Amino acid sequence: MVSLLRSLMVLRIHATHRWQNASKYTRRRWTFCGVTGFLTIFLFLYSLSNYGQQHIQRLKEIGSSYRQADYKPPVVDSTNGDEPPSWEKLRKWELDLPQHDLDLPYPEGRTGRYIYFRNQIQYLGWNNQLNEVLMNTFLAYKSKRTYVFQDYHWKVDYYPWPESQVKDWPLRTPANALISGPSVGGPWDPEDPAPRSVSDDWWDTVCPEKERRIINTREVKPAIMWENGEVIFNHWVKLLGEATDRCIEIQAADREEDGFPQVFDLFLWGSDRILPLWESFRDSPVSRLLGTSPIVEAAVAKNEYLFVPRGPRPSVPAARNPFDRMFAVHLRRGDYKDACLGFANWNSTFYSWNLLPFLPDRFINPPGYTWGTNTPENVEFFLKHCLPSDASIVEQVNNARSEYAAAGKPGEHRYLDVLFLLTNDKTSWVDGLKAMFKKHGWHTIVTTSDLELDPWEKDVGMAVDMEIARRAAVFLGNGWSSFTSNINHRRLVDGKEPISIRFY
Ligand SMILES: Nc1nc2c(ncn2[C@@H]2O[C@H](COP(=O)(O)OP(=O)(O)O)[C@@H](O)[C@H]2O)c(=O)[nH]1
Ligand SMILES: *[C@@H]1O[C@H](CO)[C@@H](O)[C@H](O)[C@H]1NC(C)=O
Ligand SMILES: [Mg+2]
What we know:
Structural class: alpha/beta
Strand order of the largest sheet: 6-2-1-8-7
Low-confidence stretches: 15-24
Number of helices: 19
Transmembrane segments: 30-48
Bound molecules: guanosine-5'-diphosphate, 2-acetamido-2-deoxy-beta-D-glucopyranose, magnesium ion
Helix content: 40-55%
Mean pLDDT: 91
Oligomer: single chain
Keywords: Membrane, Transmembrane, Transmembrane helix
């Protein structure tokens, strides 16, 4: 019950967050419709009047005199080409995937079995979607159905460009720009007969509306709402696997009924109920074959020279590969200034894979919490781990570096002298931190804003930072963050040691 109430509270925080975001967009749309409608009616009536007719005639004359004069169009490239990309070529590539072919034999083509999660989370952080994309793919795989992938739809606050530069709403990025692998249409293992994922555009062709069986989450979730992840997963596998319908679409229950109507929802990701799924998920082809997208790979390669060590020659043999000498630190700031207070006041645990009990820095929720609020000492304790001070960050990095070095085999030199500070902070705060690290003997320090990214790379900038942190020898992250958690997922699938995965 306590955990239920606690979860309800977490829901409220997240729901409010989401709702503010959604209503901002909705409000803009209604304002636009209202103003446009009013103007149209007004101009129509006006154009019928005598006065209006004269005015229109005058406008026509002005127009023709403009054409005659030496008229120059306004300068449009004032953004120096830094504009959101349209992803035209990648979209065409996705449309043309070879599995988008009705004539392919079973289990693909017109006789194949499909599952479309229309209830998948959108308009939230990329990583809140990513963990669900992967788990839904795993569910589709186990149910012997084709997974249908979708664009990522941005939460407006996280979009890398100001709203004034946006030409095309809603804000979205193709899935294949962000990741590669079976979740976005890539091949499975060579001997694996599983059907390749298709895009939601192709879903409309291969599963026309009249052939779809709709399952609303309200028909399924209540019975298993607070079960552990494995029970939830197996319940859905049975349902989707045994159903004879070729095309199944999962639809979301109303928000009043279920604040997060996903198959694997935020309540699950934000609790240790997710952990029983860890081993099977880690070893699944969905995790093993998850890849970095070509655009992200290219952005990392292009910027790798920044990480080539610049300090004095090490006194011990040190790796040639800069990533093997790198300590990456996720500095989750910006909206976390509020979010961390929320975590404290709702007694939130770490997020998802950050809760794995074999990782060295566990967060034990302190006693003393009461409904929706926490003691001042406890709030301070949460903030210490969620929004650490500069001095504390430097100290923890230096300690973790020593502990990592000490964990090496006899004769093994674990020499780390490259620091990558990845952050969503948009102020100059990180420059001060950089100076502190310099004083502590770090010679090569690179931050998110030092990376040079073209508009395509900028659109997937979070995935670029994640890829660098994935490859780093040691990674220190924020335990409440799904961004940190998904980096850790890949690090563990890569076989990186627990001592290289740290939290504040
Ligand atoms: N480039 C970059 N973006 C970040 C970083 N931290 C947060 N963000 C942005 O903020 C969003 C946070 O949402 P999400 O990915 O769901 O992670 P969470 O909110 O930390 O659980 C990310 O998707 C990015 O857009 C960072 O270190 N680097
Ligand atoms: C706070 O969270 C922890 C971890 O989930 C839990 O064990 C504890 O019971 C919670 N405290 C209260 C008072 O709900
Ligand atoms: Mg998030």
